[in-house]
Structures are given as C-alpha cells and as structure tokens.
Specification:
The complex is a heterotrimer of chains A (379), B (250) and C (342).
Chain A: H1 5-25, H2 31-35, H3 37-45, H4 54-69, H5 74-83, H6 87-96, H7 103-110, H8 117-126, H9 133-138, E1 141-143, E2 149-151, H10 157-188, H11 191-205, H12 209-219, H13 225-232, H14 246-269, H15 275-282, H16 287-315, H17 319-324, H18 332-342, H19 346-378
Antiparallel strand pairs in A: 1-2
Chain B: H1 4-14, H2 20-24, H3 41-48, H4 50-83, H5 88-99, H6 102-116, H7 122-146, H8 150-158, H9 163-192, H10 195-200, H11 208-219, H12 223-249
Chain C: H1 2-17, E1 25-29, H2 32-50, E2 54-58, H3 63-72, E3 79-83, H4 84-92, E4 119-130, H5 142-145, E5 155-158, H6 164-171, H7 179-183, H8 186-199, E6 203-206, H9 210-217, E7 223-227, H10 228-236, E8 249-257, H11 264-274, H12 277-286, E9 290-291, H13 294-297, H14 300-305, E10 318-319, H15 322-340
Parallel strand pairs in C: 1-2, 1-3, 5-6, 5-7, 8-10
Antiparallel strand pairs in C: 3-8, 4-7, 4-8, 4-9
Helix pairs in contact in C: 2-12, 4-15, 6-8
The chains are: A mainly alpha (379), B mainly alpha (250), C alpha/beta (342).
Chain lengths: 379, 250, 342
C-alpha cells in the first residue's frame, strides 16, 4: 500500500490540490488590495453612505499615481472595468492627471463619475478580497451598484454551456451507436483479422489531434475531394459548404473519439459468452429482443465506460470546434482558455471551469440514471 | 459481409489521415489537393526551421522524462495495488486525471504552476504529463501483474535468491516487456498531449503538438503537413513497438 | 542494469532540472512576406552587423500572450511588433518597456511615429480582394460586399471588433470621415452590429493574416478583407487578386520591448537598427514597405518603385483611429466576442 503513495501523492499535489485552488480562484479578488493597499483599508472602514471623505480620495489618487508610474495599474484597471464599463479610463485618467488637493473636489471636476456613489461602491466591494462576481457572471447574472443580484442583458455563458453539453452528448451518442457494432464485429472476428482491425482503431488513436483536424480541413474544403466525389456522383450540383459547420465539428470529433468508445466496449464484449445469445435465439427470441435483453445488458459495462470517457473528453474539447466550426459552434472550453491565457481574467476562467465541471457531472449522473432505468425496464 | 459496416468504419478511421501526405509534397503555398507541382520544400522548411527543431527537441525531452517518471511511479503503485487491493479512494485518486475534462486539468495546473513559479520551464509540464500518464501506466502494468505468478518470487526466495537476484532473474524477464510498453505508452501520451501544453508551455517549451497548432492557426503553410507526416510516423512506430512488446509479454 | 538506471536518472534530471537556458535575442512579428523580408534585411542584417544571433517568431497581435508571459514572469520574446492601440494600452498596463531614446534616435521618425513605449515600424493596411479566376466580377466596395443577394459565397472578415465594425458602418453608408464619431455612440455600435447580423451566416472569421489567402486561394471563400502586403505579393506570384484601394483601412505598427525581457538592452539596439534608413532602403527593394522612418518614407524613388506602399494610398483609405480603440477597445472587443459566439 505504501508503494502507491508516490503516485497518489503526485496526483494529489499536481491535480487534486490545483482543482481545489481553482475553486478558490473563482472567488478571490486580490487586485485592489494589492495595488492600492491603503485605499482598500480605508474603503473597508467606510460606511458606504454618500461619498467617502477627502482622505480616501487622496489615498486613491496618490496610490494610483504610484502604481501607474510603476506600470502596475493594469490588472486593477481590468478588474474594475470587468465589473463596470468605463472604470478603466476613469482610474487611468485619475492616475495620470495633475489633480491637486482637495481631491474630493478635484476628481469629480476631472470626471463627474467620481461623484457617483456607484463607482465608490464598486471600489468598496473590490476591497474585501472575496467576490461572488465571477460566479454570478458565469451563470449570466450581475451585481447592481447596490450589490443586489440582477440578470445580465446579454446572456452569453449559459447558452454556451448547454451548447457544449449538447455537442458532447451528441458526439457520445454517435460514438456509441457507431462504435458498438464495430466492437461487436471485432470481437467476433478470427484473431488474425481482429488484430488488423484493432490496429486500424489504434492508429488514429496515436496520431496527433492536430494532424487529424488538418486532414479533415483538407478533405472537406469546397474544392476538396469529398465535394469532388459528391459532384462526380451527381449527388449535388454545386459544392456543399462543409467546413465551418456543426457537421464538420461532429465529424472530426467523432473521428477523434471513436477509438475511446470502441476499446472499452471491445474489452467487455470479448468476455461475453456467446452461448447466451444463441440460447436466446434457440428459444425463439427475435433479433432486436436478443439485442435488448441479452447483448446490451451483458455489454453494458463497456458501453458505460466508453460513453463516460467520450463524454468527458468531448466536453473539454475546444481546439477542433475552433478550427473546424463557425462562430456558433464554439465550446465553453475555448472561452475558459481565452480568459485564462489571453484576457488573463483568472477569476472568470475558474468560474467558467467550475460551471463546466458541474454541468458535466450533472449530465453524466442524469445520463447514467436514465440508462439504468431504461435497461431495467427492458430487462 | 458480416463485417461490412465495421470495415467501412475502420477504413474511414484510418484513411483521412492520408490526405496530409500529398499536400506535404506540394510546391504551392495553399493547403489544397490541387497541387501545382511536387517538391520537398516543406520538408526542408520543417527540418531547417529552428522552431520546429526546438519543438521536436522539447517533445523528446518532455516525453522521455514523463515516460521514466510515470513508469517508475506507476510501477510502484501497480505493485502495491497488486499486493493488497487498494481502497476505492486511492484508486479513485489515481484515476482522477481520466475523469476531469482536459481544459479543466490544464487550467488548474496552470494556476498551480503560476503559484509555484513553475510556468515556462520543463518541470511543470513534465509533472503534468506524468500525472496524465500514470493511470494508463498503472492499467497496463496491473494487467501484466495479474498474469504474473507470485509463486515464482517465493520459489526464488526459497532457493536463496536475495531481492536483487529475484528482480533480475524473475521480475525483469516476465514483466520487462510490459514495463517497456508502459514506458512507450507514457511517452506517446506526452508526445501527443496538446491542451495542458497549451496552458503550461512558454515559447521556449513549445512541444510538437503546440507548434503544430501554431502551424495551422497562425502560419498556415504546408509545413504543417510535412510535420504531420514526420510526427505521425514517430508515433505509429512507438505504438507498433509497444503492442509488439505487449504481445511478447503475453 | 546500472547503465540503464543511470540513463533514466539523466533523463529525469534533464527534464526536471534544465534551467531556462539563456535565450537568443527573439523578435516577433505578424509573419507573412514582410517578416520573410525583414528576416533577411533587418534581423539578419543586425546579426551580421553586431554578431548577435537573432531568431524570430510569429503571432497574431494578441497582446494577451505577452501579458501572460509578463504575469508568469517567463518572458519568451524580446522585441515585438504591435498595433498602435495595443501598444498604448500595454504601455499603461506595464507590458512593455519605456523606449530608451538615448539608444533609439527619436528624430528620425515621421510625426506620430514615436510613443512612450514604442518606435514606429511600418505602415500596414487591409483591403478587399477576391480571386478573379473563380469570381470574375466581385464587390467594388463594402456596401457591395455586404450585399449577400448580389454576391453569394463566403466572405472572410477579421475576427475582432477593430476594423470589422468600421467596415460594417461604411457598408451601411456611413462616410469614412464619420465612422469613429458614430462608433463612439451606443446607437452607432448597435448599427454596426446590426449590419454585421445581415452577413453573419456567410462570414468566415480570420485570426491570422495567412487565413484570408488560404481561404480565397483554396476556393473556400469568395471574398476576403486581408493584409494588402500579402495580397499584393500573392498577386505578384500569379494569383489574380485585384486590390481595391478605396477599401483600404490602414495604420502603423510599432516596435517595442517586452517588460522584463532578458535581452531588453540588446532589443533597444535592434530597434535602432531596424528603424535606420539603410536597412529599410534595402528592405524596400524587395517588399512594398511603408516605414515610419522619415528618410525612407519620403524618398520619391522608393515611393515610385513601390506602388503598393500603403503610404501611397493613404488618401483613398480610412486611417484606423488609435485613440478611439484605446478608449473603446476593451468593451467593443468583449461585445464582439459574445456576438460572434452566439
């Protein structure tokens, strides 16, 4: 048992703890406290009535100037602008202005938004160090100036989540429906042929996903071979638009993920005693009945494992949809990666990541429950 | 005819990959099967580009390190699990990398690496790939261990062999091929991994898949197809070797 | 066995303990033909002149990638080419070093060719083109480009608010001179997005400058708005791409040094070299470049030799407003991303 500890320890340190840290990142709010520490302390002490007093104004201007001079105000400007449009310019203009004391008069003269209590409430909330903002935004909710929860006018993320789960679900279904007969056939093949077939399943398994996507990119072009064949056969009279459609996304994803569905099903099917099916046949059961009552329940562990793996992988996919799909085919993963590595809005990336995990878990449990129910009824 | 559907699907699985072959020898600059002529210029571009060579180098360094580390840890874990059935919690943790969507894994590891100061070095990405490879290594080795006769070890001990001798004479001959296969699997997983590399690799640690993504999304010349052919050959060779070894292991 | 474990040890140590190696001076641009020629005349010219090795890389102008490096304190690039609004914002955000004007001579640039963190590099533009071999008659302006009934097929536009919103407003009949005044209002922004809605199903969005040429060149799309330098070059290589200067949108790119770059000092010297008249004249011999260096930009022989210079067509096109995009870029890009993903 001790021998398992190094591996388990590494997984805990390098994956489990980071996942927990991810959870914290979704609610952490460090920018204001790090960039304007004195102002943050004063804002926490402020009662939130009307406008703060001169000392807070002065601290804000002085600290913002220092931060701008040291070129480290960008993170805070971005964080504030994320909550309220216009805060970036407001803060940067204050930092770069020549405003002199009394600042409580000077700042509003520079930009009258500084006399708006809502601006100061945004600052006060950002001084706490913990925020529900990212989680709210991930489910298309917002916080009003008074701190109440409101519904966003634009609702980008929940539709994106449902699209992601829908695409992943469709891909899973397709992989199982296509993969099941393939696995059955391979299990029934003589060993020599089975080995060749398994090789065919495994070869794409080890070829980089980018290579496979590039190949589809080439094949599916308007003037590519697929369209040429369709035209030559007279099936269509003008080239079809295949690239940058949902169909291309499904095709490429099923191609990439099919081996993950076939392999677990195959390993279970190889162990199925074929006499069960023959016995059912000899008792006069029709083919569909044999399938539903005998083959499927016996192969179920493999189907479940294959389906789970495919669904899990598909829900985290985003490179293939980004390269093969149109704007309306993008998946949540793309936005998570964009927020994490491009916009550098880690809170939002973490919040969306949590939402994706919750969505995947919910759909998985629901799917397994439904399948069990259906199998139970059939049997 | 019984296997007709399976045959069609299997051909469809493997055949599309051949589409990159002709483009890798095009003399034009556009990724299209209407070749204006044939030339090896894109292979030249691939082998002469410092970016691609750095990426190949990185992929091998990271792949080899991952392979050794994951197999060492995975072997110990598999041995331990074979000796005493593990608790559900332990095996659950070991299989965690399989059930977390890759984008989440990448994101979590990215935050952790940034907090630990491990972004933009080999350490972070090797550890990350090791975590991803461990479940596969453990599965491969556990399957081999289940066929391994523990009585052999007792027999060796009763004949007076110390642990070093029984390791060399008993364990290595019967488990060696499986261990080698596990190493190759771990290598292949690292060699092909894109998402975590996308999060963790700085420009100095670009791996081949990462560079290929840049190739198809930023640069977009047929070099990507030449690279695809070379990289696929390496992967398929590694895979073929691994399955040959496994077959030898029985 | 001992040999093998030694090997394994070496492999692990190599992987885990290799320190970030001292990196070569790395300069990053937008790729394409300009960079191929800049490599020859500017990067390698500097390498030959000083004996410092220079390597180059390509990006799509995502300053965020630089921000990620600065945040992670792993600076993989030294000198980068950036677009003007990104330069100004990145300078405020601490992504770029302030220019060292004691190394780079400030007085050699055209007016507006210097900012706190950047030195003017070259002018660039985007314009409408299509493949006359496939489509003999194409749209003559943006209004026609947005006429889906008259011009069927896919059109390729840049995936982002900048340039795309201007094009949408011009397509909707706004005069070039009034585009930015309109875009500064909520009504004007709504109008631009509404106009984009009318073509959305027929648009393929590009992120890298190579994509418009790939998509039009392979017949995937019928029309594209792409970088004029690359389009002109493809036309020189035999492609039948007309360049419509009346659809030109242009701006200047700047050279800057990434904050905390290990080769920052060397980078400043490289920028001084790359903006000098000599190397730029040599470059202009191979590529229709519009440098921000006065002596070359105003040289009548170079202007006559390179009809495709953006500077020669400034009067026909729309100058991309840096100040506008500094102020509104964040919000409009966010809105665009949400709109495009719908």
């Amino acid at each position: 048992m001790l021998l398992t500890l190094p591996a388990v320890g590494l997984v805990v340190v390098a994956l489990l703890l980071p996942l927990i840290y991810l959870l914290c990142t979704a609610v952490r709010d460090p920018e204001l406290r790090a960039t304007l520490p004195r102002t943050a302390a004063m804002l926490r002490a402020w009662d939130g009535q009307g406008l703060p007093d001169e000392a807070v104004f002065a601290a804000l201007v002085e600290e913002a100037r220092e931060a701008a001079e040291g070129q480290r105000i960008g993170g805070l400007a971005q964080r504030l602008n994320f909550e309220r449009t216009g805060m970036r310019g407001l803060l940067l203009r204050a930092a770069e202005s020549e405003v002199a004391a009394p600042y409580a008069m000077g700042l509003p003269a520079l930009d009258r938004n500084w006399a708006d209590p809502a601006v100061w409430h945004v600052l006060r909330r950002a001084s706490v160090g913990v925020t529900p903002l990212y989680l709210l935004r991930a489910v298309d909710l917002d916080m009003t100036a008074e701190g109440d929860v409101a519904v966003m006018a634009e609702r980008p993320f929940l539709p994106l989540l449902s699209r992601t789960l829908w695409i992943a679900g469709m891909v899973t279904l397709l992989c199982l429906v296509i993969g099941f007969p393939v696995a059955m056939s391979i299990a029934a093949m003589p060993p020599m042929w089975a080995r060749v077939a398994l090789g065919c399943v495994l070869v794409p398994f080890w070829i980089s996903i980018i290579v496979r996507t590039t190949a589809w990119f080439v094949l599916l072009q308007r003037e590519g071979p697929v369209n040429s064949v369709l035209m030559a056969l007279g099936l269509v009279d003008h080239p079809l638009q295949i690239m940058f459609t949902r169909f291309a996304v499904y095709l490429a994803m099923v191609h990439v993920l099919l081996p993950f569905a076939v392999l677990p099903m195959l390993s279970v099917m190889r162990r199925i005693d074929r006499r069960f099916a023959r016995a059912a046949a000899s008792l006069g059961a029709p083919a569909w009945r044999r399938f539903v009552r005998v083959t499927l329940p016996l192969a179920w562990p493999g189907v479940r494992a294959g389906g789970l793996i495919v669904f899990m992988l598909a829900s985290g996919f985003y490179i293939t949809p980004a390269l093969m799909g149109g704007g309306g085919d993008q998946m949540l993963g793309a936005f998570i990666a964009e927020y994490a590595t491009a916009s550098l809005n880690w809170g939002m990336a973490a919040a969306l990541g949590l939402m994706l995990m919750a969505g995947v878990a919910a759909v998985t449990l629901a799917g397994l429950g439904l399948a069990r129910l259906a199998l139970g009824r059939a049997a | 005819m019984r296997f007709g559907f399976a045959a069609i699907v299997l051909v469809l699985l493997a055949a599309p990959l051949l589409a990159v072959l002709p483009i890798s020898v095009t003399s034009g600059t556009v990724l299209s099967l209407h070749l204006p002529g044939v030339s090896l210029r894109w292979y030249g571009e691939f082998f002469e580009s410092s970016r691609w060579m750095l990426a190949a180098c990185n992929s091998f360094i990271i792949g080899c390190s991952t392979s050794v580390l994951a197999t060492a840890l995975g072997f110990m874990a598999a041995w331990g699990m074979w000796r005493a059935a593990p608790s559900r919690l332990l095996s659950g943790v070991l299989n965690l990398p399989l059930v977390v969507p890759s984008v989440i894994t990448g994101l979590a590891m990215y935050f952790a690496a940034a907090a630990a100061g491990l972004t933009g070095g080999y350490t972070g990405i090797v550890l990350a790939h090791t975590v991803l490879a461990i479940p596969y290594v453990v599965l491969t080795l556990l399957a081999a261990l289940r066929r391994f006769d523990a009585g052999l070890l007792r027999a060796a001990a009763s004949l007076g062999a110390d642990w070093r001798v029984s390791l060399r004479r008993v364990v290595v001959p019967s488990l060696g091929p499986a261990v080698a296969a596990a190493m190759l699997f771990a290598f292949a997983i690292s060699f092909d991994e894109l998402i975590v590399a996308l999060f963790l690799a700085g420009p100095g640690q670009y791996t081949l898949p990462r560079q290929m993504l840049a190739g198809i999304s930023d640069i977009l010349t047929p070099t990507i197809c030449a690279a695809a052919v070379v990289v696929s050959l390496v992967s398929v060779l590694a895979m073929g070797l691994a399955s040959a070894l496994l077959r030898k292991a029985g | 066995m001992r040999y093998r474990s030694l090997l394994a040890g070496v492999a692990i140590v190599a992987g885990l303990a290799l320190p970030a190696m001292a990196r070569e001076l790395t300069v990053v641009g937008f790729g394409g033909g300009f960079q191929d020629n800049a490599r020859k005349h500017l990067f390698q010219g500097y390498a030959t002149a000083t004996g410092t090795k220079v390597v180059d890389d390509v990006y799509n102008g995502e300053v965020a990638r630089i921000a990620a490096m600065v945040k992670a304190k792993d600076i993989g690039w030294d000198v980068v080419m950036v677009e003007a609004p990104e330069l100004v914002r990145g300078c405020q955000d601490g992504l770029f070093e302030r220019m060292d004007w004691s190394v780079v001579h400030k007085d050699k640039f055209v007016p507006g060719g210097t900012t706190t963190c950047g030195a003017g590099a070259v002018g660039w533009g985007v314009a409408l083109f299509w493949d006359e071999a496939r489509t003999p008659v194409g749209p003559k302006n943006y209004t026609e480009l947005f006429d889906v009934a008259k011009f069927p097929g896919k059109r390729v536009l840049r995936s982002g608010a900048k340039m795309t919103l201007e094009i949408a407003l011009m397509a909707d009949g706004v005069a070039p001179g009034e585009v930015y005044a309109a875009l500064a209002t909520k009504a004007g922004q709504d109008r631009a997005f509404a106009k984009l809605d009318t073509v959305k199903p027929t648009v393929i969005w590009w992120k890298s400058g190579a994509q418009p040429l790939q998509l039009v060149g392979s017949g995937e799309a019928a029309y594209a708005v792409g970088y004029v330098g690359r389009t002109a070059n493809a036309a020189k290589d035999g492609a039948k791409y007309p360049l419509l200067w009346n659809t030109l949108l242009y701006s200047f790119d700047f050279w800057t040094v990434v904050k905390g770059a290990p080769n920052a000092t060397e980078g400043m010297k490289l920028i001084e070299y790359m903006t000098d008249a000599g190397p730029l004249r040599a470059l202009a011999g191979d590529w229709a470049v519009s440098p921000a260096t006065k002596a070359v930009a105003d040289d009548p022989t170079i202007k006559a030799k390179n009809p495709g210079m953006v500077a020669n067509h400034a009067g026909e096109g729309l100058s991309i407003d840096t100040d506008f995009w500094v102020q509104y870029g964040d919000d409009l890009e966010k809105r665009f991303a949400a709109w495009a993903a719908r």
